[in-house]
Amino acid sequence: MIIHSNDYRNHDGYRASFNRLSKLVFGIEFESLYQKGAWDDRYICHSFVADDEIIANVSVSKMNLVINGECKRALQIGTVMTHPEHRGKGLSKQLMENVLDTYEDTCDLFFLFANRTVLEFYPKFGFSTLPEHQFHLNISDGPKANLLSLVSLDKLDVSTKEHWNLIKQKLSSRKPISKHFGVTNNEGLFQFYALNVFHECLYYSRTDDAIIVFEHEGDLMHLYDIVSDKEVYIEALVSRITTEQTRKIRFHFTPDQIIDKAYAEPFGKHEDVLFIKSLFDLGKLPAFCIPKLAHA
Predict the structure, then answer these.
(1) Mean pLDDT score of the chain, rounded to an integer?
(2) Domain of residue 277, residue span
């Protein structure tokens, strides 16, 4: 029997079964997202149920993509999983077909990220790969951040109501981080990452009135996202959050403002592969990177 999460998101038994399966297959669970009220109606699971247990699932996340300045209705497919005891029965294939049939008339494109072990699966449904690029900026030996400049950064704690409400408020009114390839209406995905992956990397910049997601890895700084309802000047921001050790910045999104200063190179073999099934002509796209915190 196929059921949708709208039928069981608030059903304790099915939700617990879904979390058991996602933890078994991916090592993740969604209960904290649900308890925080962030499992919204834009994240919809399509699942097979047997003996009151979720045995296979394909989820969709509704959002808008901004591609070359145009807003497109998009559906991202994720959490594709089958219990080991039920693999080889074609359950994922049936769920994929169900999803594509259900939403084909309500969106402009489908997209998903796949690891390199399943690259032959998605072309069967009309998906094509689209190359992404990573953007780097080399940092000179000029002035770097110091303790005084870091005072304007407040570390966020997702366990506090005040900080969680700040995150929700900023997400609800955010501007897309890129007009070349940006995302809006993806609050649930950001909140999932905030709770489960990047909870130690969240800061509020009072200077920029923005939430900044970043971390340092030796002399490399990863800048994952900037959440604000206004334009944030990236070069000025970067000058405040780099340190004396920083020599390079990797942007996990398309940095429009400094696209002529950053250098782009294709994703490496360890990165997930972007698949797109577009219902319109994408045309020729410049180098881009879909924001990391928009990956389902």
Answers:
(1) 91
(2) 2-131+268-286
